[in-house]
């Protein structure tokens, strides 16, 4: 009954990669009781927030809940995948919550989570947080024997074991793939999916933001309208403005302003899923220092857990995860 726990203490002993892999594979296997897709969704939320931890490897419940709610909204509403519980007599509570809010506000099926009104997002995430406190945080904690993280419902903070945090960054690409695969496999078994081949793509893309326009407007308000890579002026038509993930989204799995740059369409398309030349790391680090000094409260909130070496660290872990193809303009 670990899912009923309100506090979970961390087993602080050092763990080798082999020991962590053993626990991780058990979580994904049939040895771990999975009556719903919740554990996969929490694992995906942890992965998406790996680079949002503070110096103590802590994440707030609000950070994790936002990701968790966004994933389920896009699965349930946008993709009409309603079954997430092996108990056919009872819907997963997160599905009930989402469908109730959709019906109350007459929200159409094609509306993505990021486009919801802020007040609706807040109401939804608060209700989803209650579900996670009751059924999610303690459940995955129990399956990992307290090795992966500690949690406390009263202060609403989850603290990753530093060794596990490093492990997840080191093997991030493989962990993402395995989690997505097993989540898709379970959803497939619970739903009548017309296109099974497309299901994994849906699972992979549920964290994507619908539009990066807010970031574009903000970056244009503080920096010249020129491409971060080729430095040519940005304009409509031949070189329209794009917002590019400096470290590819397929690795970061989230939209962080410190990892977003203004790019022309030509550079953005050519760069695609590659890392930029390493020399650009210093450039974006200096750019981010300018952002930190803007005094803008919204920017400050987005940069809350940013450290100067974060992009460089991210770049190195991306290389270790197989992003060895680099690109530069010219």
From TrEMBL:
Keyword list, A-Z: Endonuclease, Hydrolase, Nuclease
SMART domains: HNHc
GO MF term list: endonuclease activity
InterPro entries, sorted: HNH_nuc (IPR003615)
Source superkingdom: Bacteria
Pfam family, one: HNH_4
Ranges of residues in domain HNH nuclease: 214-269
UniProt protein name: HNH endonuclease
Organism of this sequence: Mangrovibacillus cuniculi
């Amino acid at each position: 009954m670990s899912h009923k726990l309100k506090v979970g203490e961390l087993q602080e002993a050092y763990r080798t990669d082999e020991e962590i892999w053993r626990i991780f594979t058990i979580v994904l296997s049939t040895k771990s009781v999975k009556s719903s897709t919740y554990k996969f969704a929490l694992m995906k939320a942890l992965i998406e927030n790996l680079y949002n931890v503070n110096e103590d490897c802590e994440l707030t419940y609000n950070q994790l809940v936002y990701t968790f709610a966004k994933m389920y909204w896009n699965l349930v509403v946008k993709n009409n995948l309603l079954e997430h519980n092996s108990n056919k007599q009872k819907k997963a509570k997160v599905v009930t919550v989402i469908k109730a809010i959709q019906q109350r506000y007459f929200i159409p099926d094609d509306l993505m989570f990021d486009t919801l009104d802020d007040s609706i997002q807040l109401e939804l995430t608060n209700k989803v947080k209650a579900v996670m406190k009751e059924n999610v945080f303690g459940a995955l904690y129990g399956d990992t024997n307290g090795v992966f993280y500690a949690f406390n419902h009263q202060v609403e903070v989850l603290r990753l074991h530093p060794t596990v945090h490093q492990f997840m960054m080191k093997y991030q690409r493989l962990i993402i793939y395995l989690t997505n695969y097993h989540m898709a496999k379970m959803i497939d078994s619970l739903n009548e999916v017309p296109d099974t081949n497309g299901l994994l793509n849906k699972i992979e893309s549920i964290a994507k933001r619908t539009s990066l326009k807010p970031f574009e407007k903000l970056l244009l308000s503080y920096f010249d309208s020129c491409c971060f890579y080729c430095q040519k002026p940005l304009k409509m038509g031949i070189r329209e403005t794009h917002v590019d993930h400096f470290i590819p989204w397929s690795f970061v799995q989230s939209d962080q302003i410190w990892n977003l740059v203004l790019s022309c369409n030509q550079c953005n398309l050519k760069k695609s899923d590659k890392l930029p030349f390493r020399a650009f790391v210093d450039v974006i680090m200096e750019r981010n220092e300018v952002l930190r000094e803007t005094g803008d409260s919204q920017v400050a909130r987005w940069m809350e857990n940013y450290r100067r070496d974060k992009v460089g660290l991210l770049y190195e872990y991306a290389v270790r995860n197989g992003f060895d193809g680099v690109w530069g303009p010219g």
